[in-house]
């Protein structure tokens, strides 16, 4: 296992260090930049109702999607194909008793519908990656609630091999306090610590294994913030979905370090709904308005 060292910062937090650059798990510079851009966008909404921030980004996404369809697709060809589909449907209604006419009309409807889908494929492909990035960034901010001062939470350390959890310990920075002895769950190869957050801030508790420190960011705040539930080993999924979180080195005995943030529900009047449902509704509605204004063929 590559040796990890740690130092103590002025605020009492544990800071990981790597003696060799090759052992340091790197974050994606591009996705970290994207995450910073989202932080900047949401800064005016930090202390407001999260629904307002979600409305703002949903509106932007809906309008942006219509702009992509407007300028990345052949609108004239799509309009012509749609008119032909309507004409052949009308043909079926006008001559319902003529089997040959109806059969040919249905065949042309199917053919032009397929052609229409081909024309919509280009803007959909352009939108695919940006939409995945947007959804990942929104999930970081709207799926979970930050901890508040006085809240208790569970920090979980999950190990790769049986028995490696026995010698694990925890070091806490100032602002966090242990409220119960560690709970070892050998069958799950897991150790759980119950911790209380005393003050607001970003903290870095460290799981200690064989003298090596593995930190996990914990956010205590009343504001909107990006929350990384798990720190895991490198994979395509966490590279994409958690760009601001360092991955665990591959040769460590740890699989993951996890913080159990509470789930967030968006309040819309008397209703509580999942953030992604709220996002889709507002983005779809704003997209329909933009479609009319921009005269976009869909």
What would you say this structure looks like, in words?
This protein has a domain at 146-263: Immunoglobulin-like. Helix content is 43%, strand content 21%. Helix 2 (50-72) crosses helix 4 (99-142). The longest helix is centred in the middle third of the chain and has 44 residues, at 99-142. The chain is elongated and about 80 Å long. The termini are far apart. With 298 residues, the chain is α+β, with helices and mostly antiparallel strands. It is built from six helices and 15 strands.
Task: Chart the SSEs and their pairings.
Layout (H helix, E strand, L loop, with lengths): L4 E4 L5 E4 L11 H14 L7 H23 L2 H20 L4 H44 L9 E8 L9 E3 L4 E3 L4 E3 L4 E8 L3 E3 L2 E4 L2 E4 L2 E3 L9 E3 L3 H6 L12 E6 L6 E3 L2 E3 L1 H20 L4
Antiparallel strand pairs: 1-2, 3-7, 3-13, 4-9, 5-7, 6-7, 8-11, 9-10, 12-13, 14-15
Second rung of CATH, namely the architecture of the domain at 146-263: Sandwich
Number of strands: 15
Strand content: 15-25%
* Shape type: elongated
Average pLDDT over all residues:
85
CATH topology term of the domain at 146-263: Immunoglobulin-like
Order of helices and strands: EEHHHHEEEEEEEEEEHEEEH
Structural class: alpha+beta
**What is the overall number of helices?**
6
Radius of gyration: 26 Å
Note the gap between the termini. 55 Å
Low-confidence region ranges: 1-26
The helix content is 40-55%
